[in-house]
Write the structure tokens for this entry.
Amino acid sequence: SQQGEEDPQALSIQEGENATMNCSYKTSINNLQWYRQNSGRGLVHLILIRSNEREKHSGRLRVTLDTSKKSSSLLITASRAADTASYFCATARSSNTGKLIFGQGTTLQVKP
Amino acid sequence: DGGITQSPKYLFRKEGQNVTLSCEQNLNHDAMYWYRQDPGQGLRLIYYSQIVNDFQKGDIAEGYSVSREKKESFPLTVTSAQKNPTAFYLCASSYTGTGIQPQHFGDGTRLSIL
């Protein structure tokens, strides 16, 4: 079964608004990663947060990690139409097997 | 520019036929992965290779086979034993196979049944 569960499954907002996506997972992790997928394309890595980190920023992206609740959130500020895509969280387990477990994703639509 | 190249972009399989999907990377990465993505779903791991000449089954390996004879190449064969092969197949690589670095993805191959 999938390790990561994402919420909401779909999100529609206006350009300029903020978008927040949440991810929950079940087992202990080494790190959690967020990826973006444009329609019909491969995934693009956005940000990696390690289990000993609580918050990380990259441009308009802000990721938080709460290991006690086994959850993470991705915030996109001042969204643009070009942010329209599916967003996936993926967890790497503490055992460092190299395997990532992906959630089912959140589909974000940003309306111009 | 370094990256991952998957070919072909679209592939059609006849009943009883084996087909091979190509994945080549020039990133000098040790680890490579194959995922399957069904509509509206996340990615499921088919096979992965942490180093050349070695590979392991992922969560849904039945009906698939791989080889890793060169560091740059990790082809996936969808055999006739895979009864529901219609899906979007994604290849990825990472610097090592420990899971502590991000994965880089190709642009996928969409496989359909004729």
Remarks:
- The longest strand of chain A covers residues 29-37.
- Chain A is about 0% helix and 60% strand.
- The mean pLDDT of chain A is 92.
- Chain A touches chain B through 26 residues (CB under 8 Å).
